Amino acid sequence: MACILFSLTLGAYYIPVEHVFHILTADVTGTLPADIMPMEVSMIYDVRLPRVVAAVLAGCGLAVAGGVFQALFGNPLASPYTLGVSNGAGFGAALAIVLTTSAAAVQISALAFGIVSVGLTFLLAGRKRSAPVTMILSGMLVSAFFSSLVALLKFTADPQEKLPQIVYWLMGSLASVRYDGLLLVLPAYIAALALLLLYRWRINILSMGTQEARSMGVSVTRDRALIILAATLLTSLVVSFSGIIGWVGIVIPHLARMITGPDFRRLMPVSAALGIVYLLVIDDLCRTLTSLEIPIGVITGIVSIPIFIYFILKKKVRWS
């Protein structure tokens, strides 16, 4: 909560934290101090609050999904984008940017093609989708396919107007997030996150391996598919409103695992909390480091890669 309040104070126009607190609690208390200007209220509710909420949803979703994929695939480099969601959503967003000027259309198209990319990954993996290697390879192929389509759209897009929009979206940003975009994804986001929370003990069992999970009575194919679909849906929903934000889903689960160990009953809530704080801090840096806003995907790469290198040197990169 403290991190959220601090983030709401930052921007081109600084708002004291006590003013932020009074603005947020005005509906409950029924009073607003006289020294708080209407511009500050508008700034909080119309500009900063939807952005902070988006950072909370994105940080939580990417961190949880990253931890799930690392456990299921037994791969410390697995991320929320392993199955091709990022490039699929990127193609959907780029296509919508080329064809329309509607922000809602861009978000819906990104979400739709993110889901399509996962469907293609499952289709390509066929009956062997319970094998982690098969799923990862299928995801790589689908990701490469959509990456080529994105490159084609960038080549044919208007270089003065459309191309910069595509490039900026692909780098990730929370600057244009509004309430209607968040409300569009919120029901499905809550459902996917709730399912993963309920399946934490099954993720523990599945992370032991296929044979061990079957010996304990778990339906490996069904449960693995359901968990993967929930995690990829969560990722698609985040990407649809934030663009592609890399490394959060790789670094944060490792940091959480260092604190709690591999037990998902504790690991998932801690990953979610760390992901929220991490992305709020990164977004604060994006807004305050320079006079021009830096795309959030750029800063996550600059900050996260040295952290991950440190994990490697300290031999903390693992999934169990």
Q: How would you portray this structure in words?
A:
The protein is mostly helical and 320 residues long. Helix content is 75%, strand content 0%. The chain has 14 helices and no strands. The model has no long low-confidence stretch (mean pLDDT 89).
**Shape category:** globular
Q: Helix amount, in percent?
A: over 70%
Give the helix/strand class: mainly alpha
Largest sheet: none
Care to count the β-strands?
Answer: 0
- Fraction of residues in β-strands: under 5%
Figure out the total of helices. Answer: 14
- Write down the overall mean pLDDT: 89
H/E element sequence: HHHHHHHHHHHHHH
- Radius of gyration of CA atoms, rounded to a whole number: 20 Å
- The separation of the N and C termini measures 30 Å
Give the uncertain stretches in residue-range form.
none
Compact description:
The chain contains 14 helices and no strands. With 320 residues, the chain is mainly α. The two termini are 30 Å apart.
Chain-wise SSE layout:
Layout: H1 2-9, H2 17-29, H3 38-73, H4 85-99, H5 103-125, H6 132-156, H7 162-170, H8 179-198, H9 200-206, H10 210-215, H11 220-242, H12 248-260, H13 264-288, H14 296-313
